[in-house]
Amino acid sequence: MLxxxxxxxxxxxxxxxxxxxxxxxxxxxxxxxxxxVFLHGLGGSGGELSSGLHLMEFSQGLGFAFLAPDGMLDNSxxxxxxxxxSCCNFDHLQVDHIELLRGWINDALKSPKIxxxxxxxxxxxxxxxxxxxxxxxxxxxxxxxxxxxxxxxNQPRSCHPDQAPNIVEIxxxxxxxxxxxxxxxxxxxxxxxxxxxEATVKAWRKLSGCSEPAVATRDLDLDPRIPGAETQVWSGQxxxxxxxxxxxIRGGNHGSGLSRLSVLAIWxxxxxxxxxxxxx
Length: 280
Description:
single chain, alpha/beta, Rossmann fold, eight-stranded mixed beta sheet, 7 helices, 10 strands, globular
């Protein structure tokens, strides 16, 4: 029985790579328009994220194209992104999601309606981890990233983008899964520690040449379950490169910031970044 099981494993076809996601381009917008790539969390899917956030509706109404790809299935049949040591390739499967992401973006940019200077990533949880890694490795291909409940790479000194994109980390200060203060994913000490939200943006402020500490600049309402404008935005100052912000959500949970309100706030930020010249 053991020999048969071993042969079954050895002869089993390899896990197929994630298929290329369908590019969604609103027909009623002439372009050129931004491309936003939405990256789901561990166990989620691009379809669930697209449906839950009403991305097709927003795409048509606001005027952006988008991709919502799927990660690979792990041994527990959860879709994941191979982002950092902390999250979330727990089975050590062979997949290079940075190269896949690069290919998906390059394919999307073949459309004449896409502005190649306005490519953004919006990642939730595991997708946020991948967004930070992609900002390090894809650099100038990206105009900006928005990480919701994610964290930066484990070794910031290894991050050498040819150009640091705009960075926004959106994080609840009461997140029990990806701790705002840094720590272990799911509080599991057998996994490598992930950096805190503040350490994540501090590393990006250094890469963006920010010479002064971040200051609170505005308040946002991202989580409809929390009364009022529960999110305080901290912006890097004196930056010679692109902007770096931490959107700190008071209270809430790991899902805070993943809402239709957040899509509108992210779009407002994208519009503001589009009006500013890209860093050289």
